[in-house]
Amino acid sequence: MELKPLKGQHHVSAITASAEKNYTFYTQTLGMRLVKKTVNQDDTSVYHLFYADERGNPGTDLTFFEIPRAGQTVPGTDSITTTSLRVRDNSSLDYWKQRLEDHGVAHDDFSNINGRRTLAFRDFEGQRLMLVSDEHNEGVAGGQPWEKSPVPTRHGILGLGPVFLTVSRPDRTARTLTDIMGYRELPSFEGEAGQPPIRVFTTGEGGTGAEIYLVERADLSRERPGRGSVHHVAFRVENEEELRKWVDHITSSGLSNSGFVERYYFRSLYFREPNGILFELATDGPGFEGDEDFEHLGEGLALPPYFEPHREAIEANLKPLHTSRSS
After folding, report:
1. Where are the chain's structural domains?
2. Average pLDDT, stretch 258-268?
3. Each residue's pLDDT tens digit, 298-318
4. Hey, what CATH topology would domain 9-316 get?
5. What domain of life does the UniProt record list for this protein's source (predicted)?
6. Own/partner pairs for 94-99, CB < 8 Å, 24+ apart?
7. pLDDT of amino acid 326
8. Of 20, 99, 89, 30, which Cα lies nearest the Cα of 62?
9. Which residues pair with 48 in a beta bridge?
10. Which segments within the chain are labelled E, that is strand?
11. Please, are residues 239 and 285 in contact by the beta-carbon 8 Å criterion?
């Protein structure tokens, strides 16, 4: 059975305690487009919000589950510790530094990480984010920022960049990435003072949209997740036929997994790597325009067909979130 290489990041899903504040921050401050307002398909009592480029192209989605009672994250190891977001070039980072300051968003100084200019910042719940310049990037193409965003298209977020995994036993995760998932290991780069180098893994066409950074921190306790933490990272698979091959492959590798899962907007497979981080493989399609047209993505509560008979009960359990842009 021949498997095509994974194509890079598909989406990252995180946790928020406030859908309303989350919507305001990611659309008004970061200028991403809400392309789908739906529910967590494993718990329909909570929202699942998808922010992305103009139409939610694969590789551009940062998503959030709303868990109103979620406590604050206690950072630690065996977790996804930073999600980076791609911008066009170094001058875009200058724009973003000023924008973050204008909006009172906590951020670090510019940094050079693995040869790229970056700007780390946190959202209102401490979600760890980083803008990364694509100035010299080659590899997976970025998305197309939405022209109606409050951020100029020239500086808009293009999609997901490298994802940082912080683990206590890096060799176990590394073997999963290379021996099972087909990633290639690249030269490492310097980490924090006194800490081991950060290992770099890539897949498919490579570049910022296809890199995983593996950070070793055996000195930390396991992260206690809450608002401001990341739930899982998903990787791109071309189509359903290919995903079904991956289901067989992951199963034969000995990793416990979900099997094939229908998510309507894409099809998925879930499993945990040996340090306990949740990975998902997700298909590039069908996409987000099957139940809403392009102009009105994210404006109404979208439910997959298998949840439509329960719409009234689902809506009754959700606090209204007004996302219509036509009024």
Report:
1. 9-316
2. 98
3. 999 999 999 999 999 999 999
4. 2,3-Dihydroxybiphenyl 1,2-Dioxygenase; domain 1 (3.10.180)
5. Bacteria
6. 95/152, 95/155, 96/131, 96/155, 99/29, 99/151
7. 58
8. 30
9. 38, 65
10. 9-16, 33-40, 43-52, 61-66, 79-87, 107-113, 116-122, 128-133, 159-167, 184-189, 198-202, 211-216, 230-237, 261-262, 266-272, 278-286
11. yes
